[in-house]
Specification:
The protein is built from eight helices and eight strands; from the N terminus they run αβαβαβαβαβαβαβαβ. It has helices spanning 13-26, 55-59, 75-83, 96-109, 121-128, 158-166, 181-193, 215-222; strands at residues 27-29, 65-69, 88-93, 114-118, 134-140, 168-178, 197-199, 228-234. Strands 1-4-3-2-5-6-8-7 form an eight-stranded mixed beta sheet, with helices on both faces. Helix 3 (75-83) links the parallel strand 2 (65-69) and strand 3.
Length: 235
C-alpha cells in the first residue's frame, strides 16, 4: 500500500542531462518488491533476499548515514548535506523531476556525501538497508492523507515506525515534521507508543536550525498553518 501520491512532471533539458550523466554515479533503483534483508525478524521464509546496501561502499567512505524520506526537489537535502559534510545523506524519492533536480544540485555544489534512491522508501528500508545502519531518519512533510479512510496510507504509523526504528543505531534520531495539526498529534501518539523510542522534548520539538525552510513550508506558513517537529531517539 503506497504512502505517497504518484506524481508526474515534465523533465527539462537540464534535468534530462543530469539524469543521463549523474544517475550512474549517484543513483540506485529500488526494486518493486524485494524480499526482506536476511536475519531480520520479518524475513519471508524461503524468499531470495537481495544484497543489502553497503553504506560505506555506496558513498565510497565510512560515515554516519542519514536517510531522507521524500526529498522532493532536493533543495533541503542539498543544503543539509552541504552544511553537514561529516555525514552521508541517502535521499529516497519517487518523483523523477525532483530526483533530476537533486542530481543537478549535487553536481553544482560538489556534494560527494549524497546518494539518491528512486522508489518506495519503505521498500528500500525493508529490503535493502541492514538493521542499525542509519544514524538518522528524516521524514519531512510526508503526505498527510487527510481523509480518515486514507489514514492507513500514512507513513507514520506503528508498523512503519517499528521498521524505521529497527534501522537506526542506538541513540539514532527519527525526525518528523508536518504542517497538518491532526497528523502531528497522530505522529506524536504513534512515536510515543513505540517502546524503543524516546522523545527528545516534553512534546513537540522547537524548530531545529538544521532543517532548511523550503518553498513548501513557506506556503504552509503563508496559509496560516503551524509547522510541527518531532524528534525521537532510539534507546
Amino acid at each position: 500500500m503506497r504512502t505517497f501520491h504518484p506524481r508526474r512532471g515534465r523533465l527539462s533539458g537540464r534535468h534530462l542531462d543530469a539524469l543521463d550523466r549523474l544517475w550512474p554515479r549517484y543513483g540506485i533503483t529500488v526494486p518493486d518488491e524485494p524480499a526482506t534483508v536476511p536475519d531480520e525478524p520479518d524475513t519471508v521464509p524461503g524468499a531470495s533476499a537481495p544484497v543489502p546496501v553497503d553504506p560505506a561502499g555506496l558513498f565510497d567512505r565510512p560515515a554516519p548515514v542519514v536517510l531522507e524520506i521524500g526529498s522532493g526537489m532536493g533543495d533541503a537535502t542539498a543544503a543539509m548535506a552541504a552544511a553537514d559534510p561529516t555525514r552521508n545523506y541517502l535521499a529516497v524519492e519517487v518523483h523523477t523531476p525532483g530526483i533530476a533536480n537533486l542530481l543537478a544540485l549535487v553536481e553544482r555544489r560538489g556534494l560527494e556525501n549524497v546518494r539518491i534512491a528512486q522508489g518506495d522508501a519503505l521498500t528500500l528500508v525493508r529490503g535493502l538497508l541492514p538493521a542499525a545502519s542509519l544514524a538518522a531518519v528524516h521524514a519531512y512533510f510526508p503526505d498527510p492523507w487527510p481523509k480518515a479512510r486514507h489514514h492507513k496510507r500514512r507513513l507514520i504509523q506503528p508498523s512503519h515506525v517499528a521498521l524505521l526504528r529497527s534501522r537506526l543505531v542506538p541513540s539514532g534520531t527519527l525526525h518528523c515534521a508536518t504542517d497538518w495539526a491532526e497528523y502531528a498529534e497522530a505522529m506524536r501518539t504513534t512515536l510515543t507508543a513505540d517502546p524503543e523510542l524516546v522523545n527528545a522534548y516534553p512534546g513537540f520539538a522547537p524548530r531545529p536550525g538544521h532543517r532548511p525552510v523550503t518553498k513548501f513550508e513557506r506556503r504552509a506558513l503563508t496559509a496560516g498553518r503551524t509547522v510541527f517537529d518531532l524528534i525521537f531517539h532510539r534507546r
